[in-house]
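Record type: monomer structure entry
Structure origin: computed from sequence
Chain ID: A
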Amino acid sequence: MTPVAELGPLDAAGLDVLLGWAQAEGWSPGVTDGPCFFSADPEGFFGAWVHGEMVGGVAAVRYGANYGFIGLLIVKPSFRGGNLAPRLFQLALSHLGDRTIGLDSVLSQESNYQRLFGFVKAHGQVRYLGKAGSMQWASEASAKRETVTVVDLAKLPDGVVQSFDSLYFPGPRASFLRSWIHAPRHLGKALLHSQLVRGHEVKTLIGYGLLRPTPLGQKIGPLFAKSAEIAQILVESLVAGLAEEDPVLWDLPKPNQVACRLADNFGMKPVFETVRMYKGEVPSIAPATVFGITTFKLG
């Protein structure tokens, strides 16, 4: 008889174990994701133990009072097939309470999340893979650069970035953003639009993006921009320092067909798909306006 697992909160070291399992599953978390994820909600990670051995885990991160996200649900292979995964998932649901809850499901599990837990599909998502060299070309967007300036994202005030981020992400995540932007080996770029107002130059944030290392290549996310032209400038700026053969990954919501065509133009190919699902009221942010998902693990 399989012993009953004990469930409880994970500390930062336990989260690192869970992310190691995610890497073994081929999910390709970033090499510095652990501290960033933990900063999002230190109480939002849970594990399962049998005789002191960690055998499962899940993330249930709260973004304010109205939104939460579930990810990283993993059970060690020798403990799969029982009730451990549903127990962990139910614990995640309980932690998030009556918030709207999002998750990114692999295609094969979509029906289970709907049937067992009441999640509803919102839209598809696709991961693109390409080479940096095919993404480093002068484009029509270059003509726009006389009125815009590319700057290091880390140099912008936190409040400016957080305010812009709230236009594209359905919950507050100030602590996560600070950690994400300033983490080692993370490269962030922002685009500022300049205009004269009563004789004074005023610069407005119109897009930002971030590039981080993973074992499978450099990954873009998030990428939030006011237009496809802005997104294109940001992508080119992010990959400009990479070697031509460096692989680049980019996760996009399928409803943003403009972004998907941009990935096609960059010579990238779709390699993986997920389904964004929600339990509760669907966030009002239109996926067609998002040019890069932050991470499938935490939204």
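Annotation 1: Residues 127-289 form a domain with the Aminopeptidase fold (CATH 3.40.630.30).
Annotation 2: The longest helix spans residues 12-24.
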